[in-house]
Specification:
alpha/beta; five-stranded mixed sheet
């Protein structure tokens, strides 16, 4: 394939939208397309494969016959190898049905969105990434290219420092206040939001409406910003737990470049971000907190660029890790 025909495609399929970038060189995007949520944990594997395949087909059509060398899709909700394989097969089947024969054998890799985010954040170099959104996970890339993980165990046994954890702790504190425990401004903040004005409301919100508990993280952060001791203790506790996980990564391997980047919806809150950054730098002297060098979809593009042209090596196999 001549050099001018080598177009690489990266896809970031998140919880709210899916983004595609096609480019020959980083920083020179030929296409930037968007689609709906592609997270199979939310929309199911059939719809997720449809979203991904639809964007790829659009890219093929808009590139007017120029050849795509390889595609990498980082997909939220597809952390297990069997899930990645299932999506891979679904994408392949749809491309066979909807694209010209010349485009049906494009190498495709499906991986987890956290790995493309890590690739993007440090452009393939070493560092630690902390993702704090609905859930949390800490990922490191060592100087030798090895990947390490702490956290990411889900809301039942993990996700310390996450939106879910903060929201659940805030509602628990309000329940304790109803029982005669320490009073908290979170009661008034919840009442002002219209969600909880009574004990019956609290039961209704949690057990009948099954409202996602991460929705209440913003109220806990607001309470901490306002100086409420109970909310402040919740934020301090969970930031300490998340910071501890980062320190475990450093303890496991000293050969990590001393830099950290923070991603995720909760980490984008200025108050929470500053508290987490301060806690990390207090524990890790000489380290720096930095903005990611690129948005996650560029990490997927970089991984597509690094893929072998041999589809057999690029294809994820059942039971093989990403």
């Amino acid at each position: 394939m001549p050099p001018n025909a080598r177009i690489y495609v990266g896809i970031d399929a998140g919880g709210s939208k899916t983004e595609l970038v096609a480019a020959k060189r980083q920083g020179e995007e030929l296409l930037n397309l968007f689609g709906p949520c592609g997270n199979p944990a939310r929309v199911g594997f059939k719809d997720s494969a449809d979203v991904l395949a639809n964007l790829i087909v659009q890219a093929i059509e808009r590139l007017h016959g120029e050849s795509i060398a390889s595609i990498c899709a980082g997909v939220a909700g597809a952390g297990r190898p069997q899930d990645q394989h299932l999506l891979y097969e679904g994408i392949r089947a749809r491309l066979r049905d909807r694209t010209p024969s010349s485009a049906r054998d494009i190498p495709v890799q499906v991986t987890h969105d956290s790995l493309i985010a890590l690739e993007a954040a440090f452009e393939g170099k070493s560092g630690i990434m902390v993702i704090s959104g609905t859930g949390t996970v800490c990922l490191a890339r060592t100087n030798s290219g090895e990947f390490l993980r702490a956290g990411g165990w889900g809301y039942l046994i993990g996700d310390e420092g996450s939106g879910y954890a903060l929201g659940a702790a805030g509602l628990r504190a309000v329940a304790h206040a109803f029982d005669g425990g320490p009073d908290t401004a979170l009661r008034n903040l919840l009442a002002a939001s219209g969600d909880v004005t009574s004990e019956e409301d609290l039961f209704e919100v949690v057990y009948k409406k099954k409202t996602p508990l991460q929705r209440f993280a913003r109220i806990v952060i607001q309470g901490a910003c306002d100086g409420d001791a109970v909310a402040e203790a919740i934020v301090r506790k969970h930031i300490a737990l998340l910071t501890e996980q980062v320190c475990w990564l450093v303890d496991r391997c000293s050969a990590i470049r001393p830099r950290i980047t923070l991603l995720g919806g909760l980490a984008s809150n200025p108050f929470y971000r500053q508290r987490l950054s301060d806690a990390l730098l207090d524990r890790l002297a000489g380290w720096e907190c930095m903005q990611p060098l690129n948005r996650p979809v560029i990490g997927a593009w970089r991984m597509a660029n690094n893929m072998t042209q041999n589809e057999e090596l690029a294809r994820p196999e059942k039971g093989a890790g990403a």
